[in-house]
Write a structure and sequence with these properties.
Elements lengths: L1 H7 L6 E3 L2 H7 L3 E4 L14 H12 L9 E4 L13 H5 L9 H18 L16 H12 L15 H23 L6 H10 L1 H15 L3 H7 L2
Parallel strand pairs: 1-2, 2-3
Helix pairs in contact: 5-6, 5-7, 5-9, 6-9, 7-9, 7-10, 8-9, 9-10
Length: 227
């Protein structure tokens, strides 16, 4: 929709889209569909040659004879693979009954080393709960997943519960994965996804949170968590 505003002002636009059905419905003037996972619009991180290939394909749409045009990025062996989702990995879970709070404590040193190695940059911080208080957050999520409606003082007063559960889950996943990337520098993408969803108590906990959200009628928030 913004593309149309820019076009009406005389500025040509092109876009990269991850959901083809949305682009077919909205019909932006020029769009390149890339069949990559969410968060990987240009391909894998640290792969400038492939990312330049994606950008070049999007910019090539300026040469189209007519609009709207929706092009498909060609299949490429170097493209990022679809990420393992919770449901697919849970059937192979090997640590479903572990202690997520204990995992937080065990991983904290790796996470803090990750912060030091990356000048403090992190994907953790959406829910407003400091990572040093994640053990308490885990206990709250365990209570929720178990069917309780326990209070939690660190939840922002103006944030609805489903939204808080979603962003808190994103923070926990980011904490686990950044710690794991410090611990196992060879792990990326599906290595991390498979490890989190099938080998950690934290992954099993978030899957249970998603199950309760679904049961409570908030399937959208549940899908956002279990991916």
């Amino acid at each position: 929709m913004l593309a149309r505003v820019f076009e009406e002002a005389g500025l040509a636009t092109t876009a990269i889209v991850l959901i083809k059905e949305h682009a077919e419905r909205v019909k932006p003037p020029r769009a390149l569909f890339v069949p990559f996972p969410f968060g990987f619009a240009l391909g894998n991180p640290d792969d400038p040659p492939f990312q330049h290939k994606v950008l070049a394909a999007a910019l090539d749409l300026f040469g189209a004879d007519s609009t709207p045009v929706l092009a498909d990025f060609p299949d490429d062996a170097d493209a990022p693979a679809r990420l393992v989702q919770a449901k697919a990995a849970q059937s192979e879970a090997v640590n479903a009954d572990g202690d997520a709070a204990g995992e937080i404590t065990a991983l904290r040193g790796y996470y803090e080393r990750w912060l030091g190695d990356h000048d403090g940059r992190t994907m953790v911080g959406l829910c407003g709960v400091p990572q040093r208080k994640f053990r308490g957050l885990v206990r709250f999520l365990e209570a929720y997943a178990g069917g309780e409606d326990a209070p939690y003082d660190d939840r922002p007063a103006d944030m609805p519960l489903p939204r808080f559960l979603r962003v808190a889950s994103d923070d926990l996943k980011a904490f686990y994965m950044e710690a794991r990337m410090c611990q196992r520098q060879d792990h990326r993408n599906n290595d991390l996804q498979s490890w989190f969803w099938s080998e950690t108590a934290g992954g099993r906990l978030l899957a249970r949170v998603a199950e309760r959200l679904t049961a409570d009628g908030d399937e959208r928030a549940a899908q956002g968590i279990a991916r």
